[in-house]
Amino acid sequence: MKALERYLTAWSRHHRSGGFGIHSPYAYNFVRNVWRQPLPYYAYEGIHELLETIKSGTTREQRRQLDLIGEREARLLFRVTNFFNPQHILQVGAATGVEAVAMLEVNSKSRLYLYDPQLEQKALAVRVLQSQLDRVGCYDDIDVATGELMETTGAPVLALVNTPVDESVLTRLLDAHCVVVMRNMRRNRAMARLFDACCRHMTMGQTYTNGNIAILNPNPKLQREDFSLWL
Known about the structure:
Mean pLDDT: 90
Structural class: alpha/beta
Radius of gyration: 17 Å
Strand content: 5-15%
Largest sheet: 8 strands, mixed
Number of strands: 8
Low-confidence stretches: 6-18
């Protein structure tokens, strides 16, 4: 979403984020109780402390280069994972590891399939994930990661995409009714184009986005709708 478009749609996105004008009961519940849930969760304190620890040892430019997730997005990611409660999660791009920690906090039995060919070069992410390594499988081949995920679960439940991948990977996940969360669309045009392609591919289900992070739920029981929101 371009800057001018964000400005022109600010009021309608804010209005919609309160549930106004949303006719789908499912979407209304998701927007009110997941996207904009105001009540605190038990995991928020840990997420805040982890982010503050990282911030205390880095500059703003370093945090941008490291792709440190913002606290609002980290909380949203936890809430989305909590809502769908997946046993198996795919993550594309390790970033700083904060996202993985937030998602794994939901269910002590869940497992993460982490695809990042450059993981060995990301010392911070490796350090953050150290306590979760028994629940994390690391891959440098996205097809192997998704293949093992599907063999284990029959159909993946949740995928977080931090960095661009081939469009066919995401369309395959969506066809398997996997909920996909996409980040960094505002600063990475490739991610924005990938989101647009996924929206065109979906024939059923709903999407929710503020122009930077997006949630795609390809549930075949839901009418095809797109919601532009405020976070």
